[in-house]
Request: fold
Amino acid sequence: MKYKNKNGIGLSYEGHENDNSVQLVKEVIREAIKIGDLELYQKSSRIDVGWVKVKDFLKENFSI
Reply:
């Protein structure tokens, strides 16, 4: 599921533990996932398959 553009180039956020900007990007994405989960669970108790796919995509591509 790792995204690559038409030239076959993909993101690599593995490692980079000492890179503050990478850690900030990961933190923002974690917070977005938390917000999405909160909105989903406040609206209904059923799991939205679309949100699960988005969440998995973000987690995989940003190594969180």
In short: Helices lie at 20-43, 49-61. The radius of gyration is 14 Å. The chain has a mean pLDDT of 83.
